[in-house]
Design brief:
Elements lengths: L13 E5 L3 H9 L6 E6 L3 E3 L4 H5 L5 H4 E3 H4 L6 E5 L2 E5 L4 E4 L4 E3 L2 E4 L3 E3 L17 H20 L3 H7 L1 E5 L3 H17 L13 E6 L10 H14 L1 E5 L3 E5 L2 E4 L2 E4 L2 E4 L3 E3 L16 E2 L5 E2 L2 E6 L4 E2 L1 E2 L2 E2 L4 H19 L14 E6 L2 E6 L2 E4 L1 H14 L3 H17 L14
Parallel strand pairs: 1-2, 1-9, 2-5, 9-21, 11-12, 11-17, 12-13, 19-22
Antiparallel strand pairs: 3-4, 6-7, 7-8, 10-18, 14-15, 15-16, 20-21, 23-24, 25-26, 26-27
The protein binds flavin-adenine dinucleotide.
């Protein structure tokens, strides 16, 4: 049990933060000058910029371009200890979290900011044949499957097999699905041009499937329509209003039609981190914890939730599961902790919505900032500036900009090395 600081020292409040994503990291940094001791626990050693994960999955960026070790990010913040480990248990009465290695860590205040993952709507058996995108491991796995599909098509012995390897489907028409499908179509039509001898990669069929009536449903209808047109211009077939009914290693079923396809990527559905279930608190359908206005857990003023694990209603609508919301919640939790330490009442959290952006492919995007709508090239520049600006670490920003400048002029994607020797 590690209640005490390493090497002794005076007893100051111990804040345990689970998750070094946008929520947890923003709380940690906002407490930099507070007289507290922080233990930041994450099962991965890095903070990940998830909005650019699809670029790793589509070979445009490499892992270190969009991730940085938490120890490095927090190296100058003396009141933090970073612990690599997976939290598997919580004893709220004893105020301890339990790690997978059996260690127990006591807290005075706990923040759970362990995020969310993708969900298969009760069809977890689809996962091996339709991988989702949440972590760097997922992105590298998808990258490998996409690149291998073209290699398998080149080596295919008959036309049906070749067509199945050149048939790609992305399930889910939210921002991630749109980004993946648009970029995949560009890879097939531009990046791989002239590299194969037996197949024409441009003949690949890229389908984006959305069960709802339109893609990018969180955007105004006219931007959804513009996104659909931009996708079609890139060569993506957009299917809306039809759910996928089955997925296996041979393909997927759309309505009543069985479609042979060897590469299906899952970009639909969200399920909150399992840690929410360790609390005796109400949760919504996705498993998010319904928190009090100050983001604390009902009945547990010493436990807070931030980011994708928190279910927060504002003006009758749910606060979206996006990075700016997680950062704002993280900063709010830090303020609430400081308020408590000073004996002041906490204040309610209010989400400031700075707008909604999604990219579709090279030079194509949609932007909605409080009713100010942009699409096409101008929107893409806006999207690029915002994403590069928010990347943590100067090195990543410079490298990402250089990679993008190169990709812009050459259509090349520099991270096309297939790793691993498993037969996917
Ligand atoms: C592919 C993809 C694209 C996205 N694109 C955008 C976008 O363009 N714009 C946007 O605003 N948002 C985007 N989002 C959403 C955004 O990334 C999330 O809203 C945000 O990351 C939520 O922050 P968080 O701190 O709650 O969780 P996360 O950032 O997911 O961080 C959770 C952390 O908790 C750790 N963790 C989880 N469980 C445990 C455990 N048991 N023990 C220890 N550690 C644990 C994880 O390793 C992780 O580091 C995207 C998300 C994905 C997956």
């Amino acid at each position: 049990m590690s209640h005490e600081p390493p090497g002794g020292g005076k007893r100051v409040p111990h804040i345990v933060i689970v998750g070094g994503g946008f929520g947890g990291l923003w709380t940690t940094r906002a407490l930099a000058s507070a007289d507290v001791r922080i233990t930041l626990i994450d099962r991965r050693n890095h903070h990940l910029f998830q909005p650019l994960l699809y670029q790793v999955a589509t070979a445009g960026l490499s892992s270190p371009d969009i991730a940085a070790p938490l120890r490095h990010i927090l190296r100058s913040q003396r009141n933090v200890e970073v612990r690599l480990g997976e939290v598997v248990g919580l004893d709220a009465a004893a105020r301890e979290v339990e790690l997978a290695d059996g260690d127990r860590i006591g807290y005075d205040t706990l923040l759970l900011a362990s995020g969310a993952t993708h969900a298969y709507f009760g069809h977890d058996d689809w996962a091996p044949d339709a991988p989702g995108l949440k972590t760097l491991d997922d992105a590298l796995h998808i990258r490998r499957r996409l690149l291998l599909a073209f290699e398998r098509a080149e080596a295919a012995q008959d036309e049906a097999e070749r067509a199945a390897w050149l048939s790609f489907a992305v399930v889910g028409g939210g921002p991630t699905g749109v980004e993946l499908a648009g970029t995949l179509a560009e890879i097939a039509r531009k990046t791989l041009r002239r590299e194969f001898r037996r197949i024409d990669p441009a003949q690949a069929k890229v389908r984006l499937i959305e069960a709802g009536p339109r893609v990018l449903s969180s955007f105004p209808e006219e931007l959804s329509e513009k996104a659909r047109k931009q996708l079609q211009k890139l060569g993506v077939e957009v299917v809306t209003g039809t759910p996928v009914n089955a997925i296996d290693e041979h393909g997927y079923t759309l309505g009543d039609t069985v479609v042979p396809a060897r590469t299906v990527v899952w970009a639909a559905g969200v399920a909150a981190s399992k840690l929410g279930a360790l609390l005796d608190a109400p949760r919504d359908r996705a498993g998010r914890v319904q928190v009090l206005p100050d983001l604390s857990v009902p009945g547990h003023p010493e436990i807070f939730i931030a980011g994708d694990l928190a279910s927060v209603q504002q003006d009758g609508k749910p606060v979206p599961g996006v990075a700016p919301a997680a950062k704002q919640m993280g900063a709010h939790v830090a303020r609430a902790i400081l308020d408590r330490l000073k004996g002041r009442p906490t204040t309610p959290f209010r989400y400031k919505d700075y707008g909604n952006l999604a990219t579709i492919g090279r030079m194509a995007a949609v932007v909605d900032v409080h009713g100010f709508k942009l699409s096409g090239l101008l929107a893409w520049w806006f999207w690029l500036a915002a994403h590069v600006f928010f990347l943590i670490g100067f090195r990543n920003r410079v490298i990402v900009l250089i990679n993008w400048a190169w990709a812009y002029w050459s259509y090349q994607r520099h991270a096309r090395i297939i790793l691993g020797d498993r037969d996917d």
